[in-house]
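User: Predict structure, ligand flavin-adenine dinucleotide.
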Amino acid sequence: PDTQGREVDVLIIGGGQAGSAAGFYLRRAGIDFTILDDQDQPGGAWRHAWPSLRLFSPSQYSSLPGRMMPAPADGGYPTASGTVAYLTDYQRRYDLPMVRPVHVDAVHRADGGLLVRTGTGDWHAKIVISATGTWSRPYIPYYPGIGEFAGRQLHTAHYTGPEPFTGQRVVIVGGGNSAAQLLAEISTVAETTWVTSRPPKLLPDDIDGKALFDLATRRYQALTSGQEHAGVGGLGDIVAVPPIREARERGVLKAEPMFARITPVGVAWPDDTHLACDTIVWCTGFRPDLGHLTPLRLRTRDGLIPTQGTRAVAEPRLHLLGYGDWTGPASATLIGVGRTARDAVTQITAQLQTSQPPR
Ligand code: FAD
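Assistant: Predicted complex:
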């Protein structure tokens, strides 16, 4: 394959916040690298978020290394479009070597490194950082009857705002922040029912992403000093951002247990209670986008790849960054990924010093 001019020491796949944070530290370490991203503009997943989305922490707790995100003019928490603008500026400011739009199809083992196949040719890298995020893999759980529902079904990933639901009966599924935020909006124009598999946990009003990050920090410190830590479970709990508090005042934040099946016109519980509805909104999360790594055969039965830090245990030339706590505490957040990226680059620097040049 033609790899002329496409040989780099480190190739990052994915140019969202995780890829950008890794780029910041690679640039600082003077390492030769390139970032491939399959979108034609910067911003990663934030480009696809619904327009009203606000982050759950203030800008100083939503920032990548080196540069603080500017606070929005209205004094509130940052918006999705503000985050896209920040990431765009970040890539320009640190002169990150982006090549876009390039979609990576597959990563293979090769002499002296990894071979990365794209729609526009091959790349060869001594080390690959996969930072492809989760947004392109929305997850919808299976329920009996799901295929026969005559109404509309929609995942968080495709939500654009409450207007299309005006006057409808809408069932919102999921116990996390996305579900609560969509419920808060949709309930202003529609008759909503919220269903969750576990009773949702609303955090106290004074807890935001900053407090959750502090929790993640304690976990990081415990783990790096060889102690046990219970995990950052609190990250899934619902942050009482202003629209959620307002919905709580209106009394719409009441959750029902999960239904057992879906009928052509609604949902039904185990005791056969039936609720007719027009739309089911699945706020049921995302899975890591790891399809391009299939040829490496690294996934275990849970669909994840065992890692030590960010490095794949069975393929040390591959690092995984940003997907969730399994690739570093809070590494799927803007503030958390910086620390993980720094550690990854420290390890990569050492790896490159001991690696053989590619043949
Ligand atoms: P992404 O932003 O998804 O970037 C990955 C990039 O890789 C994308 O540009 C993608 O197109 C590209 N790509 C994917 N596959 C390929 C391929 N095969 N070849 C080439 N390119 C590829 N975090 C916070 O810190 N604060 C919050 O308030 C917050 N709120 C959130 C609200 C919602 C609804 C969601 C879903 C997440 C939220 N997060 C929040 C979490 C987190 O910040 C995001 O999930 C974040 O976008 C993850 O960044 P990433 O760089 O890992 O992935």
